[in-house]
Amino acid sequence: MLDWIIIGAGIHGCTTAAHLAYADPSLTRDKRLLLIDSGPGPLSAWNTMTERVGMKYLRSPGVHHLHPRVRDLFSFAKRNHYYSSHFSGSSKKPSVSLFRHHCAKVIEEMDLTSCFEQAHAFNIDRCGAYWMVDTERGTLFTKRVVLATGTKEHCSLPSWLPAADQGGACHIHQKQEPEPVRPPATVIGGGMSGVQKALDLSRRFPGQVTLALRHPLRVWEYDAAPEWMGGKYRQVCRNTSTFSERRHAITRARRSGSITKNLYRQVQRQQGLGRLEVRQDPIRRVTSRQSHWLLHGSAATWEARAILCATGDQYHPAQNPLLFRLINSCQLPLAPCGYPALAPYSPVWARGLYVSGPLADLAIGPTARNIAGARTAAACIQQEAQHACT
Ligand SMILES: Cc1cc2nc3c(=O)[nH]c(=O)nc-3n(C[C@H](O)[C@H](O)[C@H](O)COP(=O)(O)OP(=O)(O)OC[C@H]3O[C@@H](n4cnc5c(N)ncnc54)[C@H](O)[C@@H]3O)c2cc1C
After folding, report:
1. What CATH number did the domain enclosing 279 receive?
2. Ligand 1 test: best mutation among 37, 323, 354, most atoms within 8 Å of CB?
3. Which Gene3D superfamilies match (predicted)?
4. How many Å apart are CA 82 and CA 85, to the nearest integer?
5. What is the pLDDT of residues 27-47, one digit of tens each?
6. Exposed (0-12), middle (13-18) or buried (19+): which is 220, by Cβ within 10 Å?
């Protein structure tokens, strides 16, 4: 019998695992905690995705990382001679290489790799006072489960892309490795992933890359205003009584599809040098030719051999087969928006069942899906579990 199974070894699953293991190292030493993921190792999806979009610096500040101690990344950077070029801006956003190195240190320190198993969970159910998790490698029994399954299973290509014959077209967040990009290429979407990918390609294929947008680029330093990283959501929860009001506040606070000032400047530069074309022209239709696509906007038609969609994820818990079955078999409470009905700062969906990431939206607020939210959820889970034991 395990103490914990964490499903999903992304940023959220690993942050929870790290918080639990630092609080009680015997969990990993005695293999009472198991981290499972359908990917090959802890953070494999994160590493693939950041590399795929050509990300250089994180969007979040250097105090957001896996380790429970807030300033751990800074002291790690100092000890390992990472100089100022590995930090961007006044909030010291770490370089991707520094962040990865720090993650590897946390994983090694807490021996999370030896507690990791590559397995896909396809069924979770109550089993008396415990939980049962079915994977293709067998059934596991545990006292507690953490669902940290992310949104990446839910990428969908825009409806205007013909379903048949999608060679050369992909979603930038899809699980399968996309085909190598052949220019001319069009990247669709003005958020962090789309813009970073367009910049990356414009350096590799100058003058042969288009960034297609539905609206002008929106510039915000973070994907939720900094006050949401403090106690503002607590205040919202005190002042609003219903889940719908909380959902409304979260939707309004999120700045999805926005980019940092630094990236905006890089776009202007690449545009000025004629390396990147930015078209604010919503695509109406796409037609395929023998070796390329024709993209028809409202104002123009242009050619592409590769179409990379960075158009977000269509995530909804009930669309995930694992969650759909779990919700129905355990009669789990849902808010009107279809997300777990959770008390503020309490990512506990049922006794012994915890959530992190998008599933914790209503508990954690606008930052729930990013690294700040992973830290908050992990700290809450660790405290709740400790409290339940005493
Ligand atoms: C390119 C990029 C850059 C980002 N940069 C930042 C940033 O700088 N700062 C910030 O705060 N946020 C950032 N984000 C947002 C967010 O922090 C990341 O998306 C983060 O990776 C989300 O982590 P996650 O663990 O929720 O999801 P994921 O990384 O998707 O991990 C979920 C894992 O669960 C596994 N899984 C799902 N279902 C099952 C199952 N049934 N059985 C087994 N395994 C399963 C998946 O294989 C996956 O590995 C960024 C996002 C992207 C895409």
Report:
1. 3.50.50.60
2. 37
3. FAD/NAD(P)-binding domain (3.50.50.60)
4. 8
5. 999 999 999 999 999 999 999
6. middle
